[in-house]
Amino acid sequence: MVRGCFLMTQIELKDHRREDSFGFLIQTLARTLDAKMKVALAEIGVDIKVFANLMMLGQQDGINQREIGQRLNFPEYFTSRNVDALVDAGLAERRPDPDSRRSFLIFLTDEGRAKAADLPAIVKKVNDEVLHEFSAKERQSVMALLQKAAGVASN
User: I want to staple 92 with a disulfide (CB 3.0 to 4.6 A). Which of 10, 14, 86, 97 is the partner?
Assistant: First the structure.
């Protein structure tokens, strides 16, 4: 490091503000959302670690762990742990896959289905809290830009 700048990037430190960094802003927003979601999910007895899996299975269950991981873009070990947690909590169950002797299909239990049904309202509430200062048009713009940056299409 040479006084005031990095040799590799030649970015002047005095000109670099974290408030102008896309990564910093996204991480800050993600931490805010994470904290609010933890509180809201705790009210219905759901751990944030299994939230994405539970929500996705609420839209379509009866799929195997590999498919869950692919849809959520999670590594296999992470998906396996989350499915274990769902099963241990009584929110999901594994059933043999009739098309493969080596895999299981994951189905929500009645309790899991009830909790999954609560999730969209919780997500909306937390999103509304975080975006309360945005107009409807600004929300649409932010979502479109984030979808573009993330490389995902809107549905």
Answer: 86
Q: Residues of the chain whose pLDDT is less than 50?
A: 1-2, 6-7
pTM here?
0.78
Burial degree of 49 (CB within 10 A; 0-12, 13-18, 19+): middle
Q: 5 with 11: CB under 8 angstroms?
A: yes
Query: How do 92-97 and 100-108 pair as beta strands?
Result: antiparallel
> Could you tell me the end-to-end alpha-carbon distance of the chain, in angstroms, rounded to an integer?
46
In angstroms, the CA 108 to CA 93 distance is 6
The dihedral through the CA atoms of 68, 146, 132, 17 has a sign that is: positive
- Report the C-alpha gap between 44 and 15 in whole angstroms: 46
